[in-house]
């Protein structure tokens, strides 16, 4: 896996897909904007990833990753309640393939984020 992409995906999941934050927004971007009365506050909840980057990652995962890669990313980073074996079973592959999909997703995300920065 690509270490800096792994860290970004962890923060992306925490910012946009976490119900464990205890805020009224529950990690939902729309709910957070409503809670802030539409005022975008960068770095909400002490995040190290800018909301712009989280939005880019959200778009990449939802629109640009192959479906099997997107499922692996969502399971790995957003599914806090399942065991690793359950995540692998949900993806319908072996453990080795699961980690290969995560690696492939990291490489793809890094590539797409690099193009946007250029």
Give the key terms.
118 residues; mainly alpha; 6 helices; 0% strand; globular
Describe what you observe in this structure.
- The chain has 118 residues and is an all-alpha fold.
- It has a domain at 3-14 and 49-117.
- It contains 6 helices and no strands.
- It has helices spanning 3-17, 29-35, 51-64, 67-78, 84-91, 95-117.
- The longest helix is centred in the last third of the chain and has 23 residues, at 95-117.
- Mean pLDDT is 80; it is low at 20-26.
Percent of residues in β-strands: under 5%
* Most strands sheet: none
Q: Give the terminus-to-terminus CA distance.
A: 23 Å
Count every beta strand, where a strand is a DSSP E run of 2 or more residues: 0
Let me know the average pLDDT. 80
Radius of gyration: 15 Å
What structural category arises from helix and sheet content? mainly alpha
- Multimeric state of these chains? single chain
Q: Could you give the order of the helices and strands? A: HHHHHH
Total of DSSP H or I helical runs spanning 4+ residues: 6
Helix content range: 55-70%
Briefly, what is this?
The protein is an all-alpha fold and 118 residues long.
Secondary structure layout:
Blueprint: H1 3-17, H2 29-35, H3 51-64, H4 67-78, H5 84-91, H6 95-117
């Amino acid at each position: 896996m690509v270490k800096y992409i792994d860290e970004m995906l962890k923060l992306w999941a925490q910012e946009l897909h976490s119900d464990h934050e205890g805020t009224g927004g529950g990690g939902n971007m729309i709910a957070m904007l409503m809670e802030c009365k539409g005022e975008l506050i960068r770095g909400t909840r002490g995040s190290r990833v800018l909301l712009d980057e989280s939005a880019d990652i959200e778009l990449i995962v939802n629109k640009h990753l192959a479906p099997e890669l997107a499922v692996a990313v969502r399971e790995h980073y957003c599914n806090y309640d399942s065991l690793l074996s359950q995540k692998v079973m949900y993806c319908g592959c072996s453990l080795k393939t699961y980690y290969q999909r995560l690696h492939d997703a990291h490489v793809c995300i890094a590539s797409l984020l690099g193009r946007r920065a250029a």
